[in-house]
Amino acid sequence: MHEPAMTHLTAADPEIGGLVEAEARRQYEKIRLIASENYVSTAVLEASGSVLTNKYSEGYPGKRYYEGQQVIDPIETLAIDRAKSLFGVEHANVQPYSGSPANLAVYLAFLQPGDPVMGMGLPSGGHLTHGWTVSATGRWFRGVRYGVRQDTGRVDLDEVRDLALENRPKVIFCGGTAIPRTIDFPGFAAIAREIDAVLVADISHIAGLIAGGAHPSPVGHAPVITTTTHKTLRGPRGAMIMSDAAHATALDKAVFPGLQGGPHNHTTAAVAVALREAATPDFREYAHRVVANAKALAEALSGRGFDLITGGTDNHLILIDLTSRGVAGKPAAKALDRAGIELNYNTVPFDPRKPFDPSGVRLGTAAITTRGLRPEQMPTLAAWIDEAVKAAGDADEATIERIAGEVRDLMSAYPMPGWV
Description:
It is an enzyme of class 2 (transferase). By secondary structure, the chain is an alpha/beta fold. The protein is 44% helix and 13% strand. The strands form 4 sheets. A 7-stranded mixed beta sheet has the order 4-10-9-8-7-5-6, sandwiched between helices. Strands 11-12-15-14 form a 4-stranded antiparallel beta sheet, covered by helices on one side.
């Protein structure tokens, strides 16, 4: 059952209590390969569900607009100090509600409506808030989008530099949501310096890998860093903005009062707990094991004939083009979900299909590594994925059902935080 136990919730609202319990069981029984998901510790769960949710705290520690902050101020200060220590930054703001508001704060801090901003295009692996058309950031600002090379699937920094010199963006984003390779922070920094732009490293997907020393850090290259606190960092659903001292005041004003009112204090406490966990040797080992699992899974999938964008991975994320398998990403993802393997359908670079029915799938190894799976299990996962994708094309529900049972048997041997 769910841990911490939800006796009061179940008694007060059996319908919601039952659904939460069902979700906990679903997470326990499935192989969760969605690259933006993870399992938080029971300690993080407890902080997230604490009485801190009762308190309103507009402002910053020592400068609040409400009284009764004697406990809240030390909690937020702990979270700030732990973020600064873990990532080696001069300043941290732990109040953004999620990654998109964190990125919006960057726009409010450094841009005026209509100003040019450069980011990776969404079809190439970028994020909506990096200036893409359907986002407010692409409607209120002039998005300049770089992509990847068709032959390698990797960013071409010569193209980035040419676009930057031509358009003179005031902000350049590096990072994204479907980038399986190491981000060249020094290369982006050199381009930003050349045109006097603010380089923003969006490390939402790789923050935990950076904290654990499994990916190079943008600190010293990007003066502004945004990140969510879940994904590989294994914290609650929240976000942070980190920066050098020179950009701190503008960013703080953009978060509050620019975009938000009171912070979510229960989330701030849970972020602090996660940051403390991420500073341990165990977490460092975890971060490196995430990458080892991803590399092993990528190798096993490639060995079974899957077309991996960039040919593999350097981090937790794998992007697969299913065109050669004769199955689109959406039906493949739905079949895999029925088979007990959870991932998401995803656009691939130069995808001829529409975004809601794309050619690819995206997967990551952060959550299964938390559960305890290791590289030796990755060939088994690749075999199940191979079988399920073929079954999706053949409408073979018997095979999908068999795989789901085998997945449940495997995962029953690996404990899950939040389930006993």
